[in-house]
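User: My collaborator and I are trying to settle a disagreement about how two of our proteins should look. Neither of us wants to argue from intuition anymore, so we agreed to look at predicted structures for both before our next call. Could you fold the first one, then the second, and keep them clearly separated?

Assistant: That sounds like a sensible way to settle it. I'll keep them separate. The first protein:
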Amino acid sequence: MRPITRGPSPQQQDFADYRDAFPDLVARLEPSCSFCERRIATQLAVEHIQPKDENRYPGLMDRWDNFLLACVNCNSTKKDKDVRLEAFFLPDRDNTAAAFDYRPDGRVVPSKGLDHACVARKTAENTLALTGLDKGPAQIADENGKIVAIDRYAQRMEVWLMAESTRGDSAFSPTVVMRRQIVKTAQATGFFSIWMRVFEDDTVMRQMLIEGYTEGETFYGFPGTARDCFDQEAQPVSPRPNCGLQRGGKI
């Protein structure tokens, strides 16, 4: 779960309709789900961190600081669940790069670094369950009777293999041009955290994934990545520097 920063609201007052915030959110965070990290061309929605319930959360339905982006799968799993900020690690206010680990088999699990902290581990588990990122693969049989994995889980495995392949290319030809092409490929496929995990031993590549780069007037990379969540060696900083958001910086 990529740690992100929305930046200040593009307007002084709350939005008249939360849907009006969609273009600004996409421009600042890129068209990808803030939870599962899939790049979504269609059916990406403005996600309310705390649900659209004026009785429980008055005034938050149209407030910028309560918005993320979510795909249909994460959104439909999260629904209108009560989100107590202290009980979850959220990408806009916590260093989620330090909270979760991505595995080659498609699993997302609490980071090993949380094993010594029962509360932190439970918070990570709560977060994965919130949007269904703790679920195993959905499987169907193809026309030959072979079981095929579909959904977010399968996509994570697919992107992992792609990232592994490009890592081999980079090792063979560690040029700036090759590294820039990897950034472009990562941006096109999504799943920032998988690319960071596959290149965990390549500080230069990780820094490029975090920072992105500009070519002419075009930015390539993952806009909105919270750069202050990583140190000079491109390793997660914990706790996250104070982002000014309520209950932020838990990890």
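The second protein, kept apart from the first:
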Amino acid sequence: MATKFRRIGVLTSGGDAPGMNNAIRAITRAALSNGVEVIGINGGYSGLVNDNVRQLSARDVSNIVTRGGTILYSDRCLEFKTEEGMAKAIATCKKYNIDGIIACGGDGTFRGATDLSNRGIPTIGIPCTIDNDITSTDYAIGYDTAMNTVVEMVDRLRDTCESHARCNVVEVMGNHAGGIAIQTAIACGAVDCVISEAPFDEEAMYEKMRRLKADGKRGFIVIVSELIPGYADPAFAKKIQEKTGIETKFARLAHVVRGGNPTLRDRVVGARMGSMAVAELLAGKSNVVICEQENETVAVDINFAQTADRLYKGKADESELEKYSKEEQSGILRLCEKKRRYFKDMTALLSEISG
């Protein structure tokens, strides 16, 4: 069915993630190998709304595998959510004979992909988010690089904490998702971690820190996921100091976590997902998201994926499952339970080995 497609578009939307360029490269090279031209859409969905596109050649995507960010840039386009904005986006697709689109980003990007598919532009999503908060996939492009960036930064803080017998509270990105926080807490030897997915015993942490200090421990790290009220704040560091007598500083790593050269994993996953997205599109598939499940790259219905996401995040209840078959309902519930079990197990691991 490759002859059906003359041109496909590729865009990156929402927050940038290291490895997006690797997906863009794979999409471009795979499409060209199948005789299909590629249109790069600049600035995400705003590029469709504002007619900001360019044709991509094999040379245009040379030497981008090492670069973070996205060569197609990104934006959050509110106009695209309106009927007028959607009409402009469809008009751009028709103007440039774009027969299908591959959209790289997070859950907001996938909602836009569904809107395009429903209006006759076949669209496939690729999960690219450092937060790794897409429930239908075990892994999203950018996650590994972001965690390695945090580890590098926290390791530097550990050096000065040890030298001065201090504690550092480190807020890391995640946007209500604690994946980066809990994994880096384990990797960096943090004394504790605060995430929204697991209960946090504040008094028990103070008691542990006092005991460890009495036992001779000098340096302490506490990792906090962003946006958690009362903890992702310098006031939490001040409280730790008051409760334990340990001098405590607060560090907010912020958007430095988004940048940097992608790791091997993000480069390879970007290539695999990009290539598969093209194959699915040329095979006539639409409204699916490319996921990694149990180390396999698979295509998942985007509505199924979004329902699993809403259910896991508490934005929907199980009544939303009624439109699915029994088998699909079980699949969605398994995905949610798998995510909950992961955080439970990781939190238990941190508790067991910290100190």
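Some points you might bring to the call about the second protein. The longest strand covers residues 166-172. The radius of gyration is 22 Å.
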